[in-house]
Amino acid sequence: MAESGMAIDSCCLQLWHHQDSHAMKSTVAINNRLNFQGLVPIQFSLVKLSHIKNKLPKMSVEEDHDDVMSEEDITVVESMTIQEHASKKRKFTSKVWNDFDWSRDKDGKEKATCKHCGKEYAYDSQKGGTSTMSRHLKKFPRLKMQDVGQLLLSTNNGELATRARKIDQSKFRDLVARLIIGKNLPFNCVKWTEFRELCSYLNVDVETISRNTTRSDILKMHKFQKEVIRKKLQCAPGKICLTSDMWTSVNTTGYISLTIHFVDQDWVLQKFLLNFSPLPPPHTGQALSDKLFLMLNDWGIEGKVTNITLDNAASNTSCVKIMKSRFIARNVMSDTGKRNFHIRCCAHIINLIVRDGLTEIDPAVIKIRLAVKYLKGSQRRKQNFLDTVSDLGMSVKIGVRQDVKTRWNSTYLMLQSCISYEKVFTHLRLVDPDYAESPNGEEWEQIKVVTKFLKVFYDLTTLFSGNKYPTSNFYFDGVCQIKVLLDQETTNGIEFIRNMAKKMQEKFAKYW
Residues 448-468: pLDDT tens digits? Predict the structure, then answer.
């Protein structure tokens, strides 16, 4: 304390002799000197110094000159003190400061920032008060369990820290909309308890959304993508080809689709499904043409169409004639379009040809179809089938497939998959009294021969159905393969193959 007192006397004397230009700087120096001695800084003024004037010891001019601090000395002391204050950490006693960082903004106001989500709160160190921050931390109960899977690593001045991902609600809603579209989920899936629990587990700040909100987001996304495609169509340098098809749902509601194909400015083949719309009856040629023209006008491409690909239904033929006459009347059809406006679907023609041929072995195909339907009718039957496959030492990877009567390629795949399990079907016929629709030995041989014969048709159907590459250049070669094969098989030594080839040849001549 003696040394501290001497420091105070010296500083006060210095201030007494330099009350003019160095008065304020000396005051700073006094406080700094006191800080160095571990004492609490006090404030001095010229008025207050007069009270201690008589108590100061007399000093000579030389002593006074030696003890006076220069401006350079004061500047050094000030700099050292500021750095020391900056390096010192504030001491907070509340536990909330384990999850908050104290700082000042550019205006010098104090604030507290959450380490986990980055949220900021105003803070006054003079008044204290951390209840707002405590309430905020209640949103992160799993942090107490040190759920590191929820935290992300970040760096701050070379030090690693953990924080929770800050949720972007608009991005979250966009991803939910994409999920529903991509996986064909219902709109109300956002109300599923499991879905909301999953979102809450990943981030507690996720705001729940309603079915109507999701529907609105999807419609906005559709509108945005529609404008993107519209601009691409406007920039298309050449003509546009159309493809249309119709479906009937299980509740007999009709639907029509419109797909476009064109080559863009970079010579890349583009394909877009523009519309998939309900089509109320009657499904006449006039109704189809009216619907297609509405779609084309909506996209503004009625003047760029060069041809359309449809199947061979009578209503489609009538539709094409009406559309062609409208395009010619508007003078928007090229000479090439006039000659080749209706392009018949090659895959559909092959489907018609093969279906006529399969009637020759209908009994065997029907038995296979009923056998597969029986096995897939219950879990017990499926398990019996798998157990039999395992007992016979066969692989279950292939499995049996069920077909769609109107699509011959699915029938081909069904027959091909069942051939591998001929022994299983034969065994089930012996051990399962309810299972009686299994092909006999002769019918199994027919199925094997027919499957081998139809492989060429299946491969060509797959080739013609491609949508990521032009297919017109495969047409001539593919049709020639079919003609040569049918001509050969009409003289086949197996009677049912010979009869199949003749039926298929008649259908081939009708279209090609």
Answer: 999 999 999 999 999 998 878
Q: For residue 179, what are the contacts with CB-CB under 8 A and spacing of at least 6?
A: 185
Angstrom CA distances, 494 to 355, 450, 499, stand at 19, 11, 9
Element (H, E) at 141: none
The model carries a pTM of 0.57
Q: What are the Cα distances from residue 207, in Å, to 114, 167, 386?
A: 19, 9, 46
The answer, yes or no, to whether the previous bond of 282 is cis (omega within 30 of 0) is yes
> Taking a C-beta distance cutoff of 8 angstroms, is the pair 340, 483 a contact?
no
Compute the residue count for the chain. 512
Contact assessment for residue 301 and residue 240, using Cβ atoms and an 8 Å cutoff: yes
**108 conformational bin, left if phi > 0, alpha if psi -120 to 50, beta if neither:** left
Dist CA 439 CA 371 (whole Å)? 9
Instruction: Give the pLDDT confidence of 253-311 residue by residue, as tens digits.
Output: 889 999 999 998 889 889 999 999 999 988 899 999 999 999 999 999 988 999 999 88
Q: Across residues 374-399, what is the average pLDDT?
A: 83
Name beta bridge partners: 256: 246, 277
Spatial distance between the Cα atoms of 242 and 302, rounded to a whole number of angstroms: 11
Determine contact, residues 148/162, Cβ cutoff 8 Å: yes
Does residue 151 carry a pLDDT above 50? no
Amino acid at 319: C
Spans of all domains in the chain: 2-87, 97-164, 172-235, 238-332, 350-511
Number of H helices, E strands in the chain: 20, 10
Alpha-carbon span 481 to 460, nearest angstrom: 9
pLDDT tens for residues 422-442? 888 888 888 887 787 778 889
Q: What is the mean pLDDT of residues 103-122?
A: 85
Write out the two tokens for 49: 């110094």
Q: Chain-centre distance of CA 84, in angstroms?
A: 52
Count CB-CB contacts under 10 A for residue 467: 10
3-state class of 255 per DSSP?
strand
Q: How many CB atoms lie within 10 A of CB 158?
A: 5
Does the pLDDT value for residue 63 go beyond 60?
no
Using CA atoms, how far residue 60 sits from 16, 64, 250, 284, 477, in Å, is 13, 6, 114, 122, 119
DSSP single-letter state for residue 282 = P
